[in-house]
Amino acid sequence: MRPFRISKAQARRVPALGAAFFIALGLFAPQSFAAPVNQAAATAPSAAATGAPRAIPVPKSPDATLDGRPLASDTSKKSATPQAAAASPAKTAKKFSAAPSATGCDLSAFTGATGATLVRNVKAASLDCVGTLFNISGTDATKAFREAQMASVADGLRDASATYPGDNSTSVGQLVLFLRAGYYVQWKYPNDVGTYGSTLQTSIRGGLDAFYAAPHSKDVTQANGETLAEAVTLIDSAYENGRYTAPVKRLLADYTTSWPGSMTDAVANTKTVIENGFDRDGFIPALQADPGFATTMSSFVTRNASLINGGDMVTSIGIVIGNYVAHDELKAQGRPIIKDLVTRFPLVGATGPLTMNLVWFTENKDKGNCSVYGLCDLPTRLPPLVLTNTRTCNANLRVRAQEMTEQQLADTCTSLINEDALFHKVIQDNGAIPGDVNTNLEVVVFDDYYEYSLYAGAMYGIAVDNGGMYEEGNPTKAGNQARFIAHEASWLRPSFQIWNLNHEYTHYLDGRYNMYGDFDAGMVTPTIWWVEGIAEYISYSYRNERNANAIAEAAKKTYKLSELFDTVYDQTPDATVNSTRVYAWGYLAVRYMLQSHPDDVKAVLAKYRTGDWNGARTLLKATIGTKYDTDFATWLTACAADNCGTLPPVQSTPLCTLPDTRQFDKNCRRDNAAATTGNLSYSFLYLPAGVKSLTITSAGGTGNADLYYNGGSWATNSSYLAKSTNQGNGESLTITNPPAGWVYFSLYAQQGFSGATVTTTYTTS
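Predicted structure:
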């Protein structure tokens, strides 16, 4: 993640590190909280736009794009793709009760015929056959879908609709599907198909006019719905959204939960017509002329509220209402309707996606008018509704979570507290920077990226097209609250992990103990090699995980060490290159310097801690300069072969002195614990009365040891009260209010291990 030491006073926030790949999650995150799919590295609002320093997004968690929808009213980002391409055409076509095919699926029936012959061939083909036309290109696309061909089929739809019987026995469905395919292919391959003009517009209007005028197009039957659902989508494909608001309105007004599935599909497809319509000519004037359209949409939502579950058509259509306040001409219509919906439906639970998306529209498209909607208090109203689980780890650390269990809260506290100890062992600081009063951190954890995207923006005023956000605030201001806003890594379940937790916590520690002032102060010279490199190094070291990405990069030898001292966030226009240099190469640079030149690191940090940024820069670029480049290249070769080396030993916890090497005491350690695969290394400890919290940790060495605790009897992997079973030897357990007397714990060799360090600490009340 980027330096997270951000001044709240200047609204400076930095997104957190995530994965460089994306997984579409689902339907409804606030539309502009998510980045467009094709803009994975989209930047946050510019300084000019926000009045705040710029924050450059970094790679996201795997879920971070959700459905990737740009804001519906933003024509610069909104795709004009005809809706026909969103799903498999073949699957769509199979919804019809198709007439038998007389021609089979011969492409030449569409590319080698014109006029009335083409219309006959389309009607004679199976729906599956017509559906394959969505995939054609080149000369086939030219022959099948040039304007004259499309106009002929649109005229055929007009003629066939005059006697439309309410089912597909006359092959009206094939004509509709052909037209949808044509608009889609023309959008995708405009140079192949050629332009569409007034000839086709006249014909398609004639075809759609005739279809929607046909009495049986209003039949509430499964058979009619199969054709109607496709005809609704054709409105959008043909960009005729503004002309056909009446049939859309009728469907919304008449719908009941008793309608058959295909008719429900037709209603669901109106969402695309409405949403895309806001960006198309004639649609907004049509809504201005018919205020009843907005009230019909609202009534549709309230009347069918029983269907709302967060991923349903009522929610999706209801969200589109927010576009009314994105257009000045429609604000007066939209405001009372949106106010009613966000007041009527709860902000959390099944209706949360509906209400919070509408909230987003009010905050971003009707700025400064929160009082109109009764939403000005959301930043204080939402947290207790959403973050229902709280744990105070210690006087300096609190976790507020949406769905975490007591054990997960306890484990998170343990993870951060123990990481704190590792950080100070590695850094060997002498305490917080004078004047830094960021003595406590609040960790906010949403259940997954989706919930983060839904609520974090309204609660904390942050962008959420990222993997989390750290807010340092002003570290010199009394009462300032530093906060890391995060989400669980749902894609790793059933394993529990808070995405970026240890990396971000390192930023908090680094800002408090190494980097003078706020974030902007530390950015006057390039410090990113350290800021992000140490966060990556501590995170991987504490979790005892191999940084596979960095090790793979080491083999490439892309950068010299002297070049990495110049790293900034936006080094190049290529976001992937930037991310790799910032994180993987930052990790490699910091690891090398800590292991090979620790005295130089101490000298640089001495400058950083006093805010002598130019002095640190001189040390890095002039005193050190290029003299380590050759050795760094040699080290990269070894690291690429998984021989990256280890830090010089730093131990602040004293060795245990009791003669029995199995026995521990308060705040002591034993080194070189070992056991062969399947065996245990047994230990015990005597606790006085009144112990409030006992923490047992293991770290270092090779192999894979798991930690087990069993109170008053020997601990094994089959007899225990608590366990920690991470990969490697990095294990930790915190036992609250343990019994007085002898307690027992063991390391079980899941894989033979050696060289591990075991530490016990406890506090008394």
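Summary: The first strand starts at residue 14 and ends at 15.
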